[in-house]
Structure formats: structure tokens, C-alpha cells
Amino acid sequence: MAEANLTIIRDSTARAREADSPRSPVVHFGSDRPLRLDAGVELSPFQIAYQTYGKLDANRANAVMVCHALTGDQHVANVHPVTGKPGWWETMVGPGRPIDTDRYFVISANVIGSCMGTSGPSSTNPATGKPWGLAFPVVTVRDMVNAQAMLLDHLGIESLFAVAGGSLGGMQVLQWTASYPQRVFAALPIATGTRHSAQNIAFHEVGRQAVMADPEWRGGRYLLEHTNPRRGLAVARMGAHITYLSDAALHRKFGRKFQDRSNPTFSFDADFEVESYLRHQGSSFVERFDANSYLYLTRAMDYFDLAADYGGVLARAFKDTPTRFCVISFTSDWLFPTSESRAIVHALNAGGARVSFAEITTDKGHDAFLLDEPELFAIVRGFLDAAGKARGLNGKP
Amino acid sequence: MAEANLTIIRDSTARAREADSPRSPVVHFGSDRPLRLDAGVELSPFQIAYQTYGKLDANRANAVMVCHALTGDQHVANVHPVTGKPGWWETMVGPGRPIDTDRYFVISANVIGSCMGTSGPSSTNPATGKPWGLAFPVVTVRDMVNAQAMLLDHLGIESLFAVAGGSLGGMQVLQWTASYPQRVFAALPIATGTRHSAQNIAFHEVGRQAVMADPEWRGGRYLLEHTNPRRGLAVARMGAHITYLSDAALHRKFGRKFQDRSNPTFSFDADFEVESYLRHQGSSFVERFDANSYLYLTRAMDYFDLAADYGGVLARAFKDTPTRFCVISFTSDWLFPTSESRAIVHALNAGGARVSFAEITTDKGHDAFLLDEPELFAIVRGFLDAAGKARGLNGKP
Questions:
Q1: Which residues of chain A neighbour B235 with C-beta distances below 8 Å?
Q2: Which of A26, A161, B3, B221 is the most buried (most CB within 10 A)?
Q3: Given an 8 Å threshold on Cβ–Cβ distance, is B198 in contact with A264?
């Protein structure tokens, strides 16, 4: 952690430097340790940027992997080096928090394909000395998890006490339990599903088309050509952001309230507060995220279909799993509705797994997993406490 | 009707000509008959393009106004002059159809702000001889209805037997009954609401931003500068199209099926059928619709708030209404969910109005009003039959 001496940078050139030289620990994997991708190619050399919080105990038994969502990163519980904002899960992870860094050793790695220091399309391609762009191979959720497993090997951690995450992070949690059942004692897949629905793929495709429609995208070569498809990426983010909330939350927060006035302007200005809010979401996002990474990570989510890797039978993905699960969904999440979580629970039940399930009542939509949800905190804390006792963790590391 | 000798044109220049010289009847309103707009300005001169089907009876009592939705037009039941496709409501309107042109005289007018022959941003501004572009005043649903009332005056029709429409068309139906209660005997608002929700405004704003982000939009001056913001408009249409369907319908039609292959390509091609379908929706739309009209008509929907014009009390909009209503919603419509229709029904009940209400079970989403829905057809037919008896219509005109 380098919280104290972080300098906040806000322009996208500086943000792009973060891709190669992140302000967090980095592991370089040389040509002797390639990452074998689902696309059938090897990524080598490559690097993983990560953060850790807390201390690993003497038995190396208290490690918790936190997996981030689409536009998240390894900066779970420290000031973000680009935005200067708090870590994205500071309400969940930290001293005395549900994922308690006084008790657990928390690891979070930027996923393969992202843009905060782990190899991705905005990283420098070592073969050419130039940004990868679309020459970077298309990656999958399994590739992300395999890379994290290599990071664990590097850190000398054989097995995780727990793995937790929401949305794309939850997909990684599920993939962890399927790919490495012996390495995961407890799993917390939150607001997620085992496959992306047609509607979710459709929304992602609109976002990708918005990026690719921007002439500044330049076929993905914008870093080389010193352009930036910020308008296209902003539109993509605005559209996606609607899907992270709920109709009820938008109504409660904004309704039909006008921005700074009491009557319509009869123009295309942001008359309504909700328009102004969305425009802000779009413009602030482009300062911190890479457009090509947005394409790669949405694609990875679309491709995710855990059952497909097991002959279409989801229960086989979890067959004889030793992992104990806590599956959590939110009533107003229409991106990953509760029915998706129930499908996970049914598949786990079919395999006789230890599983508890909670549907949390909230109007905050999909983003509820990132927000101040006391019931979520209580459930995560309680589940980890019980799992810690079963694991023989003794409170303090 | 000029069905037989329509030549199909497919390029956008030819489509743009349709704005001034449509291949349907046109009424020109000179400077003596301005349209007073909610924006506080007068539109003058202006024109309305329309179609009619069937014959007006001797009492001029059998006229039915069909109001079109956002991207619809006056070509309800004839081959479309630009796309060559059947009219958008041929399943509903025609000889022997629920809105039976053997019995009723059907009128449909292109709305103010659209692009198929009624004055809008792609029309020639008579003051400059050049396309209006963003100099065209922002219009409202009430403006659309007031223009239609002027068309009725021109046609010598004092009162409508019925007015029917879905979505934006349904908003016009509601506005008709509020603005001209004495001129509407029966009203059929379908898949609509009395105001646009925050979420709906948000989706529209994303679409507008997609159009305006396209450098070929040129601040709305693309017709003058011979460009065309087709990519931005296609993205807008793709996003909107998702909201017209339902999660269940997308799952049933496409699921996670790959397009023309059995495995992913690990690229950004349209791997999934749903991607390919959406791209087609986007690219075909730009051939037939004007980007600025898309801005104007989405804005009109966002501004619509019928209760706001009556002190926030919806029931006052329908106070002492002589009109009989049939309100129809669809179970899977998440753009205008049944709760919106129930709010209309409650307001009508509060005023003691004659109202029947049907919620039709379907997985087809908002677009169900345009599709083959036998229950919808039966309800419309039955309601109009009963209203016709009450009106004293005697079958054949």
C-alpha cells in the first residue's frame, strides 16, 4: 500500500501510464511462466498488479481474495491513485469491517484485460514496444482466475480461506470454485450469475458499438494515434449505469425533477436531474478507464457460461465441492435477478454442497453490492465468522 | 393512398426529400393558421402529412385517429414509401381488421417534429430555404395533438369516433382526451403512461447523447453539411430496441446462441445472434429515420407529464370526461409497466369515467402492441363494436 504518498493524476495520458507502471505491487511473469488462455494462445510475458491488506498468518490460512467487477480494480480499500477517491469496497474491507483486515489477509488483483497495471490492451506489448490495442488476445473469466492462481503461487499461498466478489467479481468467485475447488474454503458470489443473459449481452453490445462508433477509437489504435474515444466510452457508461440501478432508485433519487430550474428549457440541455447525473457518470468514467479494456471485460462477461464447460449441467461444475458457499442477491437487481442466484443454489444443492442463500430487499439495484447495505455487511461478517471457526482461524493472525 | 405506384427509395438523401414532399396527402397551413407551441412560439407556415383509409360516413361520425409511436408515421396500413415494408399496424387496421376500414374512416398523421412529411427538423425552414435542424422549436405531445386537431378541422371532422395508439401514440390519445374531451367519443391508450419515468428519461438521454456524440451530427447541421450521424443514431436505436423487448423474449428468441458457428471467435465480431440482430436493427433504422427527429420526439416523450398541467392531480385531466376508455397494458412491458396503466384507470375511476382495463399476458414486452397479439385484437375489436353501438354507427358507412 502506498496510500500516503500517492499523487493524484487526472489526465488520461497519466492514467495510461498506470497500465505499465501501476502504483501498487506488481508481479512479472516471464517467458517461463506463460498464461495459457481460453482463446488458444499464450500470454507471455505478462504482469499482475495487486494490493494486499492485513497480515498473512503463520499457517498461511487466512487469505481472502477479493475479485473486482467490470470497472473496478485492485484498489479495494485504499485511495485510488487516479481518481483520489476511497477504495471501491472500503465499506466491506478494512479493520473491523466485515472482511476484517485485522483478521484476514486480503488480496485483490487487477484482472487480465483491465487497465490498472495487469496486462491488458492499454499495456505495452513487449514484442513491439507499443500498446497492445486489439492485438491483445480476448480473455475470459477463467483466464482471469488462472492468472490470480499464478499470483497466489507467487505469494506462496496454497489455499484461500475465502474468495468474494460481486457481478463480474462474482463470476470469478464461481470460476474459482469450479477450477480450483481444493484451493477455496469459502466462497461469496454476490449479485451474479453463471452466464450472461441475452439481454445483458445486448446491453454490452450497445456499449461496445458506442465505443467503436467513435472515430477517435481508430480501430483500437487511439493510444498510438494520440486520440481518445471519450465520447463513445461516455455513452457506453451512461447506458450501462442505468442497468446498475433500478427504476425505483432512479425515481426516488431523481423522479422528474428539473436541474436548477422549475420549468423545461425546450432545448436539449440536461433539463432533468437524471440527465445531468448520467452525463457526469459518463464524463468522470472516461478519466479513469481505458476504452479497449471496456471492450475486453464486457466480452469476458458475455462469454461466461459456467455450465457450458461441464456439458451444460451446472451441478457438474460444483460436483463434490469441498467449498462452503454464501450466495447473495438483491431484490431490485434486474441485471442479475435473484433467479440467477437461485440457479446457483439449486446446482449446489444437487451436489450436496454447503450453501446458504440470502436475497436482500433493497431498491438500489445491481450496484447494491457496492453500497451501504447493513444486511449485506451482517451476512458477510456472519458467514466468514462461521467459516473461520470451521477453518480453525483463531481470531487474530 | 398511393400504394400501387410507390417507388422504393433506400438512400438517406431520398428519404430526406420525404420530409418536404411526402408521398402521402399533405395539408399546408399558411401564416393565417399558425400552430401555437408549448415552447411559447408559433410555427408558421407548417404542413401535416397524413394517410386515410376507408370512407367517412354521411354523418361524419366514424372517424378514427390512429396516433403513431416514436419512430412510426402515417403509413399505418400501406406499403412504406421508404422501406417497402408493410404498414406498421396492418395487423390492426384494414378491411376486417379490429380497426375495420370497412366500417371506420381511419386517419393517421405524421407528428410534428417527425420526418415523414409533417414539419420537423429535417423539413425546409420557409424563412431560410434550408433545413431547420436545431432551429426547429422543441415540441410537446400537446403540440402534436393540437396539430392533429387542425388537420381534423381541415377535413371537416368535428368529432372522432375513436382515437387509438400505443407508447408515444398512447400519450397522444391521453392528451386528446384531456385537451379535446368533446371531440373524442372513445379512447384506446395502449402500452403507455401519463408521464415518462426517470429511467425512461435516462434511456432517452443515452440515445440523444449517442447521436450528438457522432461528429457527423455537426451540431444538428448534417443535412446542410452533407454528412449523416448514422453510427450514433444506430447506437441509439440499438439501446432503445432492448427496452422495447423483454428479457424473456430475448432469451426465447436468442438465448446465448452463436451466429453461424458453434464456438466463440474470441473477437469483437457479432458472435451472438442477439448482437447480430441488434446491429441489424440499428443499421436499418438509420435508412428510414432522421437523427434530429429522434432527438425531438424522445424529448417530447420525456416532457410529457399530463398531471403537471392539472396541478399535479391526474384525475383533473379527465374531470367530467364524456369519453369512454379502454386502457391496455402488457405484462412484460417494463418501459410502461401495468402500474402506469393502473394509474390512468384510477384517475378515470375517480372522475366517474367509463373505463375498461385489460392487462394482456405476453413475454413480448413493450413492442407487443405492434405484434401479432390475438387478445389485443379481440379487445380492440370488442371495445370498438360496443362503442359503435353506443355512438349509433350502423355497421357500413
A1: 206, 209-210, 213, 235
A2: A161
A3: no
Q: Which amino acid is at A87?
A: G
Give the CATH number, domain containing residue B370. Answer: 3.40.50.1820
Q: Which of A209, A221, A306, A336 to mutate to test the interface with B (most CBs of B within 10 A)?
A: A209
Which residue in the set A197, A247, A270 is minimally distant from B251, CB to CB?
A197
Grid cell, residue A219, equals 480501430
Measure in Å the smallest separation between the Cα of A338 and chain B Cα atoms.
14
* List of residues 6+ apart from B47 with CB closer than 8 A: B26, B27, B28, B29, B117, B118, B119, B123
Where among A298, A329, A351 does a domain terminate? A298
End-to-end Cα, chain B, rounded Å: 19
8 Å CB contact of B206 and A40: no
Number of domains in chain A: 2
Residue B20 and residue B146 in one domain: yes
B45: distance to nearest CA of chain A, Å? 20
Residues B71, B143: one domain? yes
Strand B324-330 and strand B184-190: pairing? parallel
Q: Which structural domain, as residue segments, surrounds residue B182? A: 12-196+307-391
In a shared domain, residues B355 and B226: no
Judged by CB atoms closer than 8 Å, whether chains meet at B208 and A137 is answered as no
Interchain pair B256, A196: CB under 8 A? yes
Peptide bond into A95 cis (omega under 30): no
Same domain, B38 and B175: yes
Q: Is residue B217 part of a domain?
A: yes
- Best of B194, B266, B278, B306 to mutate (most A CBs within 10 Å, chain A): B266
* CA pair distance B323, B180, nearest whole angstrom: 10
Is residue B38 annotated as part of the catalytic site, yes or no?
no
CA–CA min distance B113, chain A (Å): 13
Please judge whether A198 and B234 are an interchain contact, meaning their C-beta atoms are less than 8 angstroms apart.
no
A-chain residue closest to B220, CA distance: A268
Q: How far is A271 from chain B (nearest CA, A)?
A: 10
Catalytic residue among B122, B167, B179, B332: B167
A33 plus A55 within the same structural domain: yes
Q: Tell me the C-alpha distance between B341 and B324, whole Å.
A: 15
- For residues B114 and A346, give the distance between their C-alpha atoms in angstroms, rounded to a whole number: 51
ipTM, 2 decimals? Answer: 0.93
The one-digit pLDDT tens for each residue of chain B (397 residues) are: 333 333 433 455 667 789 999 999 999 999 999 999 999 999 999 999 999 999 999 999 999 999 999 999 999 999 999 999 999 999 999 999 999 999 999 999 999 999 999 999 999 999 999 999 999 999 999 999 999 999 999 999 999 999 999 999 999 999 999 999 999 999 999 999 999 999 999 999 999 999 999 999 999 999 999 999 999 999 999 999 999 999 999 999 999 999 887 889 999 999 999 999 999 999 999 999 999 999 999 999 999 999 999 999 999 999 999 999 999 999 999 999 999 999 999 999 998 999 999 999 999 999 999 999 999 999 999 999 999 999 999 755 4
In the sheet that A160-166 helps form, which strands lie side by side, from edge to edge? A26-29, A46-53, A105-109, A63-67, A160-166, A184-190, A324-330, A354-360
Q: Cell 447495505 sits at which residue?
A: A373
| pLDDT at B351 (0 to 100) | 85
Asked if the structure places residue B337 within a domain, the reply is: yes
pLDDT band at A395 (very low <50, low <70, confident <90, very high): low
Pick the residue from chain B with its C-alpha nearest to A137. Answer: B266
In this structure, the dihedral spanned by the alpha carbons of residues B257, B263, B264 and B266, taken in order and rounded to 10 degrees, is 180
The model scores a pTM over 0.80 = yes
Mutate to test the interface with A, among B200, B209, B244, B333 (most CBs of A within 10 A): B209
In this structure, are A84 and A123 located in the same domain? yes
Cβ contact A231–B242 (<8 Å) = no
Give the one of A202, A210, A305 whose C-beta lies nearest to B242's C-beta.
A202
CA torsion A92-A93-A97-A98 (nearest 10°) is: 60
- Last residue in a domain, options A267, A298, A329: A298
Same domain, B34 and B126: yes
